[in-house]
Write a structure and sequence with these properties.
Length: 719
């Protein structure tokens, strides 16, 4: 039990060195039989194995053929009522192992286990049977593993889930109903009647929505047969009265239904089988019905968190449908409703500021302090709601830019200008900058003369603001503006201000101040690089040997690299590091430097973001490929010459270890495909000695490519 609590928070790198002896011990506990074997020990052992599989993922393959037979034995032999939880945990463990090792390894056992789960689940489990919850959670995992091979099971599962979604509430006479029954119900006033649902039924509905959403995410258009009936059931849940979580999850499922229907329309159009009139009509109706119902709920809603979730739901539905679905009248109505909600939220913020007690003084009571704290929390929630409402308008700009300019821009532009007044609050100015970023990103050069110059000037002023909430979106906006030809005249001013902001951060001696400002600085560094890449050859201030801040263009690139990687703003970091790799692959002269002299420096930068929040799976794969191409020997030479910082050298070794593990996995998969892997059902025992993991430090000869033959972008790596 102690390991389970520890293992759920541990990462793969920490657990891997200990996984072999740990699994040997867990195997022994699970395999032991007889009266001395306490059920709870097996119970905890199964959970611990599931945790290990979830953490080490593909590294669990070497234990697969030893562990799965034992878990299947539990399912076959532990059939008493007292064993129900153990059986449920065995289902959970098997599904998690399947996710870890992948479909090719898991396929045959998956079919057997799915049949077992369907049989048990369909047998009519008692309400308190723990197997029910474990099996319910295992089904979506099995779907994620099996993908399209899961489709045959839908005919068995979907009728049950749709029936659950359609469960109707009953009228409740609270005076005549026993108190213990009332306590076990969720009640709500609907059409002036007290209606109720059992709490367990509400939980079943919530879980059914979650599972269906997973099916949609994984199966996509293969779910087509169930889209009409599922849509009908999910739309009704958008105004569910008995649990806010159900409404929120229904919005997520609705967005997935819209996405899949849109993909069906695109498939029909691409196949040249005529216009998909029926599918397109269904898509339009889905989007309009969903958005209308959500806005109606927002009119009656008072909870700020629920309002924000509903606004985000509208954004998700429009984004899932993409463009070409809604007409001008429908878009105009959505924008008007959004502006109304935004106006009400802004009014609430103003009134709340008026209600603030006077600033605390030595004689203030604890009650005044609590009131101040509560108001601040509400103001933060209101700002989050306003940001989410701004996203509704942003997604319309993205997918319907011309229609937005025709129908709604004239209403939104003055609104943004009001937010950006010098006497506006920090929250209002930040919101105004969010709108500017949306205009720059989605409308780009369209009608730039109507909004661009005034917005860009205000944005550049905000780059030097002392508030992180202002500085960060302002710097992000500069990144977006740098992609527009109309921004070129402002390049020198923008670069000088960004340079000032970054240099000032370097001079900050207070750790607290540096940490507070770092997300904004990350955006400043990102904007700096965007200007160099997008405007370096276009701007007279940077091209032809010109000097800005006393530096040439190549020196500006060096200054930019000095402040990478980005670590405080994961979203911005991912974009910058992906772009850095792309520029390297394009042999970008400014990034690689003369004679590729920046290459060791770039490897060090990328090693520090590998498998962090500031990297993506694609970025991690590209970093692996880059280091594999350069080769272990060349990396070692660079390290010996002092090209890497100590932390970078450690990170590079981690990347190289993953290269070795990846190679071992590929060899295992090749052996499996050739039929050289032992049968998953074979009864084997673990060897008492811990299995040997691939060496984390391959020798130079183990490098897939010889360093002397390495090329990067057509040039020798050593160059």
């Amino acid at each position: 039990a102690a390991f389970v609590n520890f293992g759920e928070d541990v990462d793969e790198a920490t657990l891997l060195p200990h996984v072999d002896p740990l699994m040997n011990r867990l195997y022994a506990l699970l395999a032991a039989s007889g009266q001395h074997q306490i059920r709870s020990i097996k119970d905890h052992s199964v959970t611990a194995i599931a945790v290990v599989a979830g953490v080490v993922e593909q590294h669990f393959i070497k234990f697969y053929t030893h562990i799965i037979p034992l878990l299947k034995t539990i399912l076959a032999q532990c059939t008493s009522k007292d064993d129900r939880r153990l059986r449920g945990k065995a289902y959970e463990c098997i599904s998690l192992i399947g996710l870890a090792v992948g479909r090719d390894t898991f396929r045959n056992d998956a079919k057997e286990v799915m049949q077992s789960m369907i049989t048990v689940y369909g047998s009519g489990l008692d309400a308190d049977d723990p197997q029910k919850e474990y099996i319910q959670e295992a089904f979506p995992r099995m779907c994620r593993v099996l993908k399209e091979e899961f489709i045959p099971y839908l005919s068995v599962l979907m009728p049950h889930y749709l029936s659950t979604l359609r469960t109707q509430a009953t009228e409740v006479d609270t005076d005549a109903t026993p108190e213990d029954e009332i306590d076990d119900m969720s009640l709500a006033m609907v059409d002036q009647k007290c209606m109720g649902l059992k709490t367990t039924v509400v939980e079943d509905i919530q879980q059914a929505v979650t599972i269906i959403k997973t099916f949609l995410e994984v199966l996509g258009t293969d779910f087509r047969e169930y889209i009409p009936t599922t849509t009908e059931a999910v739309v009704a849940l958008l105004s569910f009265h008995f649990a806010d979580d159900v409404k929120t999850k229904a919005v997520g499922a609705m967005a997935e239904l819209i996405r899949v229907t849109r993909e069906l329309v695109e498939q029909r159009e691409a196949s040249q089988q005529g216009q998909p009139a029926a599918e397109r009509e269904l898509l339009v109706n889905m989007v309009v019905q969903a958005i209308d119902r959500i806005f109606k709920c927002m009119e009656e809603e008072e909870d700020l968190d629920n309002l924000r979730a509903q606004a985000m739901g509208i954004t998700r539905c429009i984004a899932a449908a993409k463009g070409g679905v809604l007409n001008d009248d429908q878009l105009s109505r959505i924008c008007e409703c959004t502006i109304t909600q935004l106006t009400e939220a802004t009014h609430r913020r103003i009134e709340r500021e008026k209600d603030k007690p006077t600033p605390q003084e030595p004689g203030d009571t604890e009650e005044v302090e609590d009131d101040m704290e509560l108001i601040e929390e509400e103001q933060e929630a209101e700002q989050s709601l306003r940001s989410s409402l701004a996203e509704v308008l942003a997604v319309i700009m993205k997918h319907y830019p011309d229609a937005f300019l025709r129908t709604s821009a004239s209403k939104v532009i003055p609104y943004v200008g009001h937010f950006l007044q010098p006497n506006s609050s920090v929250a209002d100015r930040a919101l105004g900058l969010y709108f500017i970023c949306d205009f720059l990103e989605h409308l780009q050069d369209r009608h730039f003369h109507e909004w661009g110059q005034q917005f860009v000037a205000k944005m550049l002023d905000c780059v030097l603001d002392d508030h992180t909430e202002i500085k960060q979106p302002a710097c992000y906006g500069v990144s977006l503006a740098s992609r527009l030809s109309a921004f070129v005249p402002a390049v020198q001013v923008a670069l000088e201000r960004l340079h000032h902001v970054i240099v000032q951060q370097d001079k900050n001696t207070t750790q607290k101040k540096r940490k507070e400002m770092q997300p904004a600085i990350d955006n400043a560094v990102s904007a700096y690089g965007e200007i160099l890449v997008n405007c370096g050859s276009q701007s007279p201030a940077l091209s032809g040997g010109a000097s800005v801040c006393g530096m040439t263009l190549q020196q500006h690139y060096g200054f930019w690299l000095d402040h990478l990687p980005l670590r405080a703003d994961p979203e911005e970091g991912q974009k910058v590091h992906e772009k850095l790799l792309k520029l390297m692959n394009q042999n970008h002269e400014g990034v690689l430097g003369p004679n590729r002299c920046h290459l060791p420096r770039l490897v060090g930068i990328l090693s520090r973001v590998y498998k962090t929040d500031c990297s993506t799976d694609e970025c991690n794969t590209a970093i692996l490929s880059l280091l594999q191409q350069i080769g272990h020997e060349q990396l070692h030479q660079w390290q010996q010459s002092g090209a890497f910082k100590p932390k970078e050298a450690e990170r590079i070794e981690k990347v190289w270890k993953d290269i070795a593990v990846q190679s071992a996995k590929q060899q295992h998969q090749a052996a499996t495909a050739a039929g050289h892997t032992p049968s998953p059902t074979a009864q084997q025992t673990l060897h008492p000695a811990a299995p040997h993991l691939p060496s984390p430090h391959p020798s130079p000869e183990a490098s897939p490519l010889h360093p002397q033959q390495q090329t990067f972008g057509g040039t020798h790596a050593a160059g």
